[in-house]
Write a structure and sequence with these properties.
mainly alpha, Serine Threonine Protein Phosphatase 5, Tetratricopeptide repeat, 0% strand
């Protein structure tokens, strides 16, 4: 396990090496790898660019690692270009095949991803990452046993990689072993304190265990590392609303951030409206719930929640229309609301 302080110390040492020999490409490459681990992605790209510029023998790995940085930034076309370029220079570059496989998986080219993972394993059977990727594909196909075997193999080959621990936790969560899943997600964050998904996944387990205050802390750690994670804001908002005492104002801040990042997020508008209603601000809840309905006219819960706000404002005609629409869309809870508020029971 390489601790955060170790990585930062390594970054500092490579900076010294660059200061004394600025034309040596190797410390640029090494610092780029460290910065990639620290999620200093633009700085890592700058270092890989320097290593590529000086045409060190590590140039193929520099290009492939630069592709990984682009991928983390969501620049998938640039990432794919780098992975393809690496392979065109060296058809035996197992890192590029593995990295390209993970990108193809994200792009839902599952056959292409599997081909790349198999190629990487054939070229370097002791490299863990392609086993993790192949495990993802097996998991998606329902082969839990095969996926678990691949994740275990990846962990045995590289115990410092957080991803297979996290993926193994996902299998345990699927099987209902919440404590086992939480243990794996915790291991993921221990081997890599910068692994945002590990904190997020810990939060989801704690939510299921109704440990909302603890879940909020984990989502906050995830957001510190990944400040544009819509799901983490959304889940943290729900946990705040459910915590004791309820932090409705904090929840509204989180849901509003979701809307800012994703203006078509139906759930966020529904949660905003529902939370405003919980605060007794029924008038302000209605525009949010109406927006949720505008974005998804089949979203029964938004009709029910808007109906309840209308009922609180004594606008019973509108409330009853919403309750009836919610019932039509399969929301059985609205049946009792219709009986309570509508004259035509």
């Amino acid at each position: 396990m390489q601790k955060e302080s170790d990585l930062e110390g390594s970054e500092s040492e490579f900076a010294k090496a660059i200061f004394y020999d600025p034309y040596n490409p190797l410390p640029y490459y090494e610092r780029g790898v460290v910065r990639l681990r620290l999620y200093k992605l633009y700085e890592a790209i700058e270092d890989f660019n320097k290593a590529i510029e000086y045409e060190h023998p590590m140039v193929v790995l520099s290009i492939s690692n630069r592709g990984s940085a682009w991928q983390e930034l969501g620049e998938y076309e640039k990432a794919l270009t780098d992975f393809d370029h690496s392979i065109s220079i060296d058809s035996g570059c197992y890192l590029a095949y593995s990295n390209r496989g993970h990108l193809k998986y994200l792009l839902e080219d599952f056959d292409g991803a599997l081909t790349d993972f198999e190629k990487a394993i054939k070229l370097a059977s002791t490299y863990g990452s392609p086993y993790t990727g192949r495990g993802l594909i097996k998991f998606d196909k329902g082969d839990m046993k095969g996926a678990m075997k691949d994740y275990e193999k990846a962990i045995s080959l590289d115990p410092s990689d957080p991803q297979p621990y996290s993926n193994r936790g996902g299998i345990k969560k699927e099987k209902g072993d919440l404590e086992g899943a939480l243990k794996d997600y915790t291991l993921a964050t221990e081997v890599d304190p910068y692994f945002a998904d590990g904190y997020y996944n810990k939060g989801t387990i704690l939510d299921k265990q109704s440990k909302f205050e603890e879940a909020i802390l984990e989502y906050s750690k995830a957001l510190k590392l990944s400040p544009y994670d819509v799901n983490a804001y959304s889940n943290r908002g729900v946990s705040k609303a459910r915590s004791t005492p309820n932090d409705y104002f904090g929840a509204i801040v989180d849901f509003a951030r979701v809307v800012e990042l994703d203006p078509e997020n139906v759930l966020a508008f529904n949660n905003l409206g529902l939370t405003r209603a919980n605060l007794g601000d029924f008038e302000k809840s209605i525009p949010d719930l109406s927006k949720a309905i505008e974005l998804d006219p089949t979203y029964a819960f938004a009709y029910r929640n808007r109906g309840k706000s209308y009922a609180k404002l004594d606008q019973l005609d509108k409330a009853c229309i919403d309750f009836m629409k919610a019932i039509e869309l399969g929301d059985d809870f609205s049946i009792e609301l219709k009986k309570e508020f509508c004259t035509d029971k």
